[in-house]
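Design request, C-alpha cells follow.
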C-alpha cells in the first residue's frame, strides 16, 4: 500500500503551487499583529513588504504554537478517508508544536486504530524542514513506503546544514530562540552574527562577521566548505524581504557550478517574525558531522 498523506506545517515554507500539485496537507500556524490573529495558510499570499516593513518600524509580531486541537482537525479528516499519515514537523528545538503533534497523534491512534501515524522532528525550520518534505514527496512517487521514508529522514536529518545571518538580533533574543544569546556582542560596530541549527535543532551563534556584505559571503563560503555532492541536491535560500541579496547569494553559489538547483523563498510570516526582516538563510546537505561544524 502506498496510500498515505504527507503532512507538514506552514513553516516548511513551500510554495502553494508545489503544495497543490503534490496533494500535501499543510497545518497552519497563527501569528498576531496588533492583537489580531492571522492564519498562515498560503506562504505566497501575504504582504511581505508590508509585514517586514512594519517590523522594521517597530511593530511587534507574535506567534503561537499549533495546538493539539488544530492538529486533530487537520489530521482527522485524512484518517477518515482511510489514509495513513507521515507528518514532518518544524524543529522541536525552537517550537513546542512537535510535542503538541505527538499528543494529538496518540489521541488519533486511539480513535483510528486501523490507521498509522508517523511523526518526524525535522530539527529544521523553513526549508530546513521543507526540503525534507520535498524528499518525502519524491520518495513516495518512486514507490517507497511511509516507513522507509520516515527511516530515511530520521537517519539523514542531521546532515541538513542550516546557516543564516540577520539584520538585527533583537527578534531572536526577544523570542528566546537564540540559545547562546549571552555570547553575542549584538549590533555594535556593524557586527553580523552567523547562526546555525545545532544537533538539537536549536539556533546558536557560531561566528561574528563585520559588515552585512561579508556575512552573506560567509554563507557562500560555508556552502563551499561543507556541502556534499552539491549538484545532486536542491539547495534552499530563504529571505525576509531582502530579495536582491538572496539573488546575490544564489549567484555566488552557482559560480563554477552549472546546473546547481537553488530554491528561493520568502520567509513565511511565522518563522520570519522570529528571525526578523533582512534575514537570509541557506540550507544544504553536508557530512554526518556537519551540524557540529
Amino acid at each position: 500500500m502506498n496510500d498515505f498523506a504527507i503532512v507538514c506545517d506552514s513553516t516548511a515554507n513551500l510554495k502553494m503551487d508545489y503544495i497543490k500539485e503534490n496533494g500535501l496537507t499543510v497545518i497552519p500556524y497563527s501569528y498576531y499583529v496588533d492583537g489580531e490573529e492571522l492564519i498562515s495558510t498560503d506562504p505566497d499570499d501575504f504582504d511581505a513588504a508590508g509585514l517586514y516593513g512594519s517590523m522594521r518600524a517597530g511593530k511587534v509580531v507574535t506567534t503561537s504554537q499549533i495546538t493539539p486541537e488544530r492538529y486533530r482537525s487537520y489530521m482527522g479528516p485524512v484518517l477518515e478517508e482511510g489514509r495513513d499519515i507521515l507528518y514532518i514537523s518544524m524543529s522541536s528545538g525552537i517550537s513546542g508544536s512537535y510535542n503538541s503533534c505527538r499528543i494529538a497523534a496518540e489521541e488519533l491512534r486511539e480513535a483510528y486504530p486501523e490507521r498509522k501515524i508517523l511523526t518526524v522532528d525535522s530539527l529544521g525550520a523553513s526549508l530546513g524542514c521543507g526540503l525534507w518534505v520535498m524528499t518525502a514527496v519524491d520518495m513516495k512517487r518512486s514507490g517507497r513506503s511511509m516507513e522507509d521514508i520516515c527511516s530515511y529522514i530520521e537517519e539523514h536529518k542531521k546532515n541538513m546544514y542550516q546557516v543564516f545571518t540577520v539584520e538585527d538580533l533583537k527578534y531572536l533574543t526577544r523570542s528566546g530562540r537564540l540559545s547562546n544569546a549571552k555570547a553575542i556582542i549584538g549590533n555594535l560596530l556593524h557586527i553580523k552574527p552567523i547562526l546555525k541549527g545545532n544537533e538539537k535543532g536549536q539556533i546558536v551563534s557560531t561566528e561574528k562577521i563585520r559588515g552585512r556584505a561579508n556575512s552573506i559571503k560567509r554563507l557562500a563560503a560555508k556552502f563551499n566548505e561543507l556541502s556534499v555532492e552539491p549538484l545532486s541536491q536542491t539547495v534552499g535560500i530563504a529571505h525576509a524581504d531582502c530579495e536582491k541579496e538572496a539573488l546575490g547569494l544564489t549567484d555566488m553559489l552557482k559560480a563554477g557550478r552549472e546546473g546547481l538547483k537553488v530554491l528561493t523563498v520568502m520567509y513565511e510570516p511565522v518563522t520570519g517574525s522570529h528571525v526578523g526582516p533582512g534575514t537570509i538563510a541557506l540550507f544544504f546537505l553536508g557530512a554526518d558531522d556537519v551540524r557540529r561544524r
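Comment from the thread starter after seeing the answer: thanks! The CA atoms of residues 86 and 180 lie 33 Å apart.
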